Amino acid sequence: MSKLGRLVLVTVILGLTMMASSSVWAKAESAKIKDIRKLMALTGSADLGMQVMDQMLVAFERNMPKVPKAFWVDFRKEIDVQGLVDLVVPIYDKHLNHEDIKALLVFYESSAGKKLIRVLPQITKESMASGEAWGRQIAERAMKKLKAKGYR
Fold first, then answer.
1. Torsion angle of alpha carbons 32, 34, 40, 43, nearest 10°?
2. Taking the CA atoms of the chain, what radius of gyration do you get in angstroms?
3. Contacts with 9 (C-beta within 8 Å, 6 or more apart), sequence order
4. 39: exposed, middle or buried (C-beta count within 10 Å: 0-12, 13-18, 19+)?
5. How far apart (Å, rounded) are the C-alpha atoms in residues 92 and 138?
6. Among the listed residues 9, 84, 10, the one whose alpha carbon sits nearest the alpha carbon of residue 40
7. Is the pLDDT of residue 20 over 60?
8. Would residue 150 be called left, alpha or beta, if left means φ above 0 and alpha means ψ between -120 and 50 degrees?
9. Is 109 helix (H, G, I), strand (E, B) or coil?
10. Does residue 109 contact residue 42 with C-beta atoms inside 8 Å?
11. Is the CB of residue 32 less than 8 Å from the CB of residue 98?
12. Per-residue confidence at 31, pLDDT binned at 50, 70, 90?
């Protein structure tokens, strides 16, 4: 076989090997993505995201009292939770390997994990309220200091 023939043969073999290995990699990646979506569904990540969104909408309503309630109700209906999930999946993929995801699935399927899932919405709600109050106190303190220094 000529040098050119051997080069073509080696190139074809390398190409086929790369294609086969990338196909296996894609399947493994697909399994990881499926597990990430399962983890997000199990933990209610999208629901927590919507809970945060709902609290933001309440704040918007409070800060924009002239906007009719119907606007906010209609606007809320337009929010696509799946869009949030699709945005977050690559973030999980970036920071966690498949073994991490599998271990998290085991944890969240345990009794302690199920309890965390059950109480996390309330923890989130209370934490946001505490954070809002804390932020308000800091803002008030800053305004007092600015006023004392002659800034308005």
1. -90
2. 26
3. 1
4. buried
5. 33
6. 84
7. no
8. left
9. coil
10. yes
11. yes
12. very high
Those residues with Cβ within 8 angstroms of residue 19's Cβ, 6 or more apart along the chain or in another chain? none
Asked whether the beta carbons of 48 and 81 are under 8 A apart, the reply is no
Measured CA to CA, the distance from residue 106 to residue 112 in angstroms comes to: 11
**pLDDT value, residue 11:** 54
Residue 64 region by backbone torsions, left for phi larger than 0, else alpha for psi between -120 and 50, else beta: beta
Measured CA to CA, the distance from residue 143 to residue 53 in angstroms comes to 28
DSSP state, residue 79: -
Q: How far apart are the first and last CA of the chain?
A: 87
Give the C-alpha separation, 98 to 106, whole Å.
Answer: 13
Phi/psi for 4 (5° steps) reads -65, -40
Q: How confident is the model at residue 29 (pLDDT cuts 50, 70, 90)?
A: low
How many other CB atoms sit within 10 Å of the CB of residue 15? 10
